[in-house]
Write a structure and sequence with these properties.
The structure is a single chain. The protein is of the alpha+beta class and 122 residues long. The chain has a single domain, classed as Orthogonal Bundle (Ribbon-helix-helix fold). It has five helices and two strands. A two-stranded antiparallel sheet has the order 1-2. The longest helix has 16 residues. It is globular and about 45 Å long. This is Arylsulfate sulfotransferase. It comes from Vibrio jasicida. Pfam families: RHH_4 (PF13467).
Length: 122
């Protein structure tokens, strides 16, 4: 939990970590293998239309995990996300960003919360 003073966050350094941490977080993030953030482009079909999606390899790994947890292939999961976003928003402006945010939402949610949300939809 981040301690705040009058609702304000403590000062950050240029790397986004708290100044008092001596850049430890920067080192953790910066020293990860380059393969984690290299772009990977995959061709998929969404509603019968061939398209390509370009994401960092780490996001593809998370999408594989999400799809597997829902007994889907990655292309099927991506198609489902696209169709649901289209239904909800009327259009999908930046689909790659939507997928990245879906991965972040998945990574930030406790598993019990995700399970409950999925069971409520069924």
């Amino acid at each position: 939990m981040i301690e705040t003073v009058d609702g304000l966050l403590p000062p950050f350094n240029n790397c986004g970590s708290f100044i008092k941490t001596n850049n430890l977080m920067c080192e953790i993030f910066a020293k990860q293998p380059q393969e984690n953030y290299q772009f990977v482009t995959r061709s998929i079909r969404i509603d019968g239309h061939a398209t390509s999606v370009k994401l960092e390899s780490s996001f593809w790994l998370i999408l594989e995990e999400i799809a597997s947890a829902q007994d889907m292939t990655v292309p099927k999961f991506i198609t489902t996300v696209y169709q649901e976003a289209l239904e909800h928003n009327g259009e999908v402006n930046n689909f790659a960003s939507l997928l990245r945010c879906a991965c972040l939402t998945y990574a930030r949610q406790p598993q019990a919360t995700l399970d409950q949300a999925l069971s409520e939809q069924n």
